[in-house]
Design goal:
about 325 residues; alpha+beta; Tetrahydropterin Synthase, Chain A; 4-stranded antiparallel beta sheet; 3-stranded antiparallel beta sheet; 8 helices
Length: about 325
């Protein structure tokens, strides 16, 4: 007796179903990878340097862009519009530039001046990337190369000056000279950077002689202060004395002119009297006598002058006062 045959429908082999599923799932899995490796965005403050199989292709501006996937094209983002900073002898916290702080700040700031003294110099260099192609391909590790150049330039400039110039009066000149020299070297080495600023921060003597240097500084400041006070007193007293001397000289000149004019006037008067006297000596003598007596006697009070022949004074005096009357003969 034969068994009945049961037909459930067409059934395909299990391997064929897996192949069909793979045909669907593999493209779906590859699609995000292709999208991630094909599209990219350049930030607003940067540019994208595109390389194809490692060779330079071009520079892309900020925004979304397309590239060949699977590592054919690679893009390096360079922050050309960002102000970058290098710090020497110290380090700020939370810095974003990997080249900003050196490995040994203590060694960086220790320098020898031109007069063989030691000084602790801290400074800052601000720069920007002006040519991203040179920055990426011309020099290996351009950030640290710029640090080495900056340190070499500062040591050269400081080594040409005395410790007093470095610490006190020569800071501006040091900044200017070091900035010019660093720009020359950056251009010569083709680093692709523009140096914007070089500024000295703290410049001090070594800690071992800090107290002695402060005392010397204080003595110099006291000296300058005393000189300024003395100059102030000089400027206050000397002009006043000069003014008083000029005033006295002017008064003396005026008195001299007055006396000379009076003497000339008196001489002229005597000359005129002499001329009249020569013409009539007796008359002139009498006139002079009378004028002189009138001038002298006008100031005499309570005195009477009478002729010696007068014997009776009562008719002359209304109120005789023997004590107040004087007879001159």
């Amino acid at each position: 007796m034969s068994r009945p045959t049961i037909v459930l429908g067409d059934r395909k082999p299990p391997g064929e179903a897996l192949v069909r599923a793979a045909r669907i799932l593999v493209p779906l899995a590859i699609l995000p990878i292709v999208a991630l490796t094909t599209f990219y965005t350049v930030p607003a403050e940067s540019v994208g340097v595109v390389q194809r199989f490692g060779a330079f292709v071009g520079i892309e501006e900020p925004g979304p862009h397309f590239r060949l996937p699977f590592g054919i094209d690679s893009v390096s983002v360079v922050p050309v519009r960002r102000q970058l900073k290098l710090e020497f002898g110290f380090g700020s916290r939370d810095y974003s530039n990997p080249d900003q702080v050196g490995e040994d700040p203590q060694r960086e700031r220790s320098m020898v001046t031109g007069d063989l003294n030691s000084a602790m110099v801290e400074w800052v260099v601000q720069y920007h990337i002006s040519d991203p192609r040179l920055w990426l391909f011309h020099t290996r590790d351009p950030g640290w190369t710029l640090r080495d150049l900056s340190e070499a330039v500062m040591r050269e400039v400081v080594g040409d000056r005395t410790v007093d110039e470095v610490i006190t009066v020569g800071r501006q000149e040091i900044e200017s000279a070091a900035l010019v020299r660093l720009r020359e070297l950056a251009s010569q080495y083709q680093l692709g950077v523009g140096i914007d600023l070089l500024q000295l921060k703290n410049v001090n003597p070594p800690e071992q002689v800090q107290s002695s240097f402060n005392e010397v500084n204080k003595a110099q400041q006291d000296r300058e202060n005393m000189i300024n006070v003395a100059n102030g007193e000089y400027n206050k007293v000397v002009p006043r004395a000069e003014g008083e001397a000029a005033q006295k000289i002017s008064e003396a000149e005026g008195y001299k002119l007055k006396r000379v004019n009076e003497a000339l006037g008196d001489a002229s008067a005597f000359q005129a009297v002499l001329a009249e006297y020569v013409k009539a000596p007796e008359i002139t003598r009498t006139r002079l006598y009378l004028e002189t007596m009138a001038e002298v006697l006008s100031s005499v009070q309570d005195k009477w002058i009478v002729d010696e022949r007068v014997t009776q004074l009562l008719p002359v005096l209304q109120q005789p006062s023997p004590a107040a009357t004087e007879v001159r003969k």
